[in-house]
Amino acid sequence: MLLKKAIICLFFLSACTPYYRYKLIDAPKNTKALDLSSSGYIVPPDDIFAFPKLEDINLSNSKHLDWSATIEKLSKIEKLKTLILNDNPDINLKTLIIDLRKIKNLKYLFLAGNKITILPNEIIDLSLLETLDLSNNPEINISDAVDKLTKLKSLDFIYLQNCNLKELPSNILQIESLAGLNLFGNGLDSLPNLSSFKNFNSLDISGNMFKSIPNDLTKIRRRMNFYAASNQITNVPDGILYMKFQTFNLTGNPLNLAAREKIRRLVNARYKWY
Q1: Is residue 179 within 8 Å of 201, Cβ to Cβ?
Q2: Could you read off the pLDDT of 45-101 as tens digits, one per residue?
Q3: What is the DSSP string of 170-233?
Q4: Which class for 30: exposed (0-12), middle (13-18), buried (19 or more C-beta within 10 A)?
Q5: What 3-state DSSP class applies to 15?
Q6: What CATH homologous superfamily does 21-178 map to?
């Protein structure tokens, strides 16, 4: 059991961003990521320009920021590509996204916990976006949001944790570049046919209402990170034996003996929990 826990810890450490987010007070000159969350800043200080490798800034829970002035300042950081803006529910999202167009290399945008209901049309102007986190926005109009996201041709990962989803709209299949979805903590019991994506390789449906693994997933032949913990799954399809897994997690499901035997026979999963 201790070995199993150690392996799990090692996996999650390896899956994390490969650099540490420093507070300004102790950040070395080669810092790539700064944590400016929960600060009293109105505008981040000029100290942020002291890090030539800076590409990631966390401004979560920043109640006092002047967002337009802040984004104007951040736009001068040449390598900036990741912005974490979680838990800022009073933010004017439309105005923010219009301002974000000034950040020329923005690829990773995190907007969890911002009370989003409608994703502004201006999101389509962030044409380089590869990752978008819309988690913890339980009142979001997901079909409308996905319809806008289909215009982003580089988008390959979407986080939709705890968004009160009862179904995943079929128009998500129109995001042709999509490679991964995090759907943790919703009310889903089925999915559109995700095997139609050319590069799909990561899926988290943990904490939902699935009674079985969608059979369409067994058609995916790319190596997968697959998480389906804490559902109501009792059995798994035979086709699972022909899939390739990096990670396979079915913990917290009432698996029957036949399912456990099939999983035991999976020899290609580097990490396997059930």
Answers
A1: yes
A2: 999 999 999 999 999 999 999 999 999 999 999 999 999 999 999 999 999 999 999
A3: GGGGG-TT--EEE-TTS--S----GGG-SS--EEE-TTS--SB--GGGGG--S-EEEE--SS--
A4: exposed
A5: helix
A6: Ribonuclease Inhibitor (3.80.10.10)
Provide the 3-class DSSP secondary structure of residue 134: coil
Q: CA 44, CA 71: separation in Å to the nearest integer?
A: 10
Residue spans per domain, the chain: 21-178
Cα separation, 99 vs 88, in Å, equals: 16
Buried b (16+ CB within 10 A) or exposed e, 225-264: bbbbbbbebebbbeebeebebbbbbbebbebeeebeebbe
Structure pTM? 0.91
Distance CA 109, CA 244 (A): 29
Which helix (H) or strand (E) element contains residue 70? helix 67-74
Contact present, 233 and 259 (Cβ < 8 Å): yes
Place of tokens 């199993």: 4
In DSSP terms, 189 is beta-bridged to: none
Tokens 């002047």 found at = 66
Q: Please give the pLDDT value at position 214.
A: 93
Nearest to 231 by CA among 201, 268, 197, 206: 206
Distance CA 76, CA 273 (A): 45
14 pLDDT tier (thresholds 50, 70, 90): very low
If you search the block for the tokens 């987010």, which residue do you land on? 21
- The CA distance from 152 to 158, in Å, is 12
